[in-house]
């Protein structure tokens, strides 16, 4: 899921691709999208973007910038802000009109020839946009560009019930940590060696309300600051996203899709040898060491990732044999129960199918017998082999059987009496 750094890199990508480009016409939405239409039409307009936390705002400005430029329908075109939330897979792409992505759900067309398109692409369709929208009021200050406000907002609300939860879950609360997502929380807690399921209030209590690390500092200076002293949790919520931004297009590059540097940058999230467990909201938390006192008791962890292939174990000691026999016996019992249940179900279905087939065959034979008798042919129709039971076959041949018996009895009587 795109997080604060990815949305900021998306805004930089839009500004770079749209610089000096003139767009025209209506903003077109795909037929399958459930997001609202964008009521904007203009002969010539420009696009700029800015980000805040997990939101990106596109500003459509008519050429001239004074709002007096006439739209296609003769109405005065006014600037419009469109707020995007990327969901699970949202991103922006600039392509030619002929190479429009399959899952492009909102398109802005250029005035040039050949025509190009800036499109919002969302494969899973969890992303949304809001025409004439504003930053969502329920979201807190941005961890990237409103660091001091973000820090004060968190530390002044520690009495809130939200901070009764584990720190790993509170870090995803956008009311206080706007821009932090799943991989960022894992990296931040890993660097400070904080158990992910420690109470958030316990972790944050005692931090200073003011911090010397300012948002306006260069990233290089921020890295020096990290080396000189160990930053606290809230400062890392600002510095770690800046490190992702410093990767440039390697963190968000829809043209080349090269994420090798980003994968090399990760220290904990989805890294071999790390532990993982699902939190109370069902999100996977990556960590090392002790999970903490508030860890879910019955959570199912995804399969552990291993870099080295498991070597064949040829140790056949009595201890291992006993362990294997116990595990094997329990497995066999489970498999046996499942096999018996499946066999019984199959036999029942087969029995029903046989009864249905016999009933259909019997009805067919009866119809043929009736038709033959109407034609004057007293000979009965023999049913197909296996379609009826033996009793039904004898029922069909019964009149002929009686006739033959009577003939034999009559002939025997004549032989005995000499007639």
Automatic annotation (TrEMBL):
GO terms for molecular function: DNA binding; DNA N-glycosylase activity; DNA-(apurinic or apyrimidinic site) endonuclease activity; lyase activity; zinc ion binding. One of its GO terms (cellular component) is chromosome. SMART domains: Fapy_DNA_glyco. It is found in: Chromosome; Cytoplasm, Cytoskeleton, Microtubule organizing center, Centrosome; Nucleus. Residues 286-336, 357-381 are annotated as: Disordered. InterPro entries: Endonuclease-VIII_DNA-bd (IPR015371), FPG_cat (IPR012319), FPG_N (IPR035937), Ribosomal_uS13-like_H2TH (IPR010979). It holds the Pfam family Fapy_DNA_glyco. Its main location: nucleus. This is Endonuclease 8-like 1. It comes from Neogobius melanostomus (round goby). The lineage of its organism: Eukaryota, Metazoa, Chordata, Craniata, Vertebrata.
């Amino acid at each position: 899921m795109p997080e604060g750094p990815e949305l900021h890199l998306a805004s930089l990508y839009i500004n770079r691709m749209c610089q000096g480009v003139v767009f025209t016409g209506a903003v077109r939405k795909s037929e399958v999208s459930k997001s609202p239409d964008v009521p904007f039409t203009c002969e010539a307009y420009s696009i700029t973007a800015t980000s805040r936390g997990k939101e990106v705002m596109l500003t459509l400005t008519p050429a001239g910038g004074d709002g007096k430029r006439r739209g296609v329908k003769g109405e005065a075109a006014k600037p419009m802000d469109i707020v995007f939330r990327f969901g699970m897979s949202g991103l922006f792409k600039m392509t030619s009109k002929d190479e429009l992505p399959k899952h492009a759900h909102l398109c802005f067309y250029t005035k040039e020839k050949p025509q190009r398109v800036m499109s919002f692409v969302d494969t899973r369709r969890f992303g949304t946009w809001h025409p004439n929208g504003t930053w969502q009021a329920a979201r807190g200050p941005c961890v990237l560009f409103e660091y001091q406000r973000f820090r004060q907002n968190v530390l002044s609300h520690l009495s809130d019930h939200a901070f009764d939860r584990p720190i790993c879950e509170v870090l995803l609360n956008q009311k206080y940590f706007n821009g932090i997502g799943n991989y960022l929380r894992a990296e931040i807690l890993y660097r400070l060696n904080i158990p992910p399921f420690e109470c958030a209030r316990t972790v944050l209590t005692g931090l200073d309300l003011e911090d010397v690390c300012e948002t306006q500092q260069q990233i290089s200076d921020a890295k020096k600051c990290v080396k000189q002293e160990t930053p606290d949790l809230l400062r890392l919520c600002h510095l770690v996203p800046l490190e992702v931004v410093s990767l440039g297009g390697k963190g968000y590059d829809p043209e080349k899709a090269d994420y090798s540097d980003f994968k090399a940058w990760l220290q904990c999230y989805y890294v071999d040898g790390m532990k993982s467990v699902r939190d109370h909201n069902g999100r996977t938390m990556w960590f090392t060491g002790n999970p903490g006192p508030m860890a879910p008791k019955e959570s199912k962890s995804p399969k552990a990732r291993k870099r080295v292939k498991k070597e064949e174990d040829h140790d056949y000691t009595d201890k291992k044999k006993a362990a294997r026999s116990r595990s094997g016996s329990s497995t066999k019992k489970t498999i046996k129960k499942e096999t018996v249940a499946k066999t019984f179900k199959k036999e029942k279905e087969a029995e029903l199918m046989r009864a249905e087939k016999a009933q259909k065959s019997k009805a067919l034979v009866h119809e043929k017998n009736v038709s033959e008798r109407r034609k004057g042919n007293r000979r009965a129709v023999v049913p197909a082999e296996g379609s009826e039971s033996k009793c039904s076959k004898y029922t069909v041949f019964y009149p002929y059987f009686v006739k033959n018996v009577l003939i034999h009895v009559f002939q025997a009587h004549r032989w005995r009496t000499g007639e």
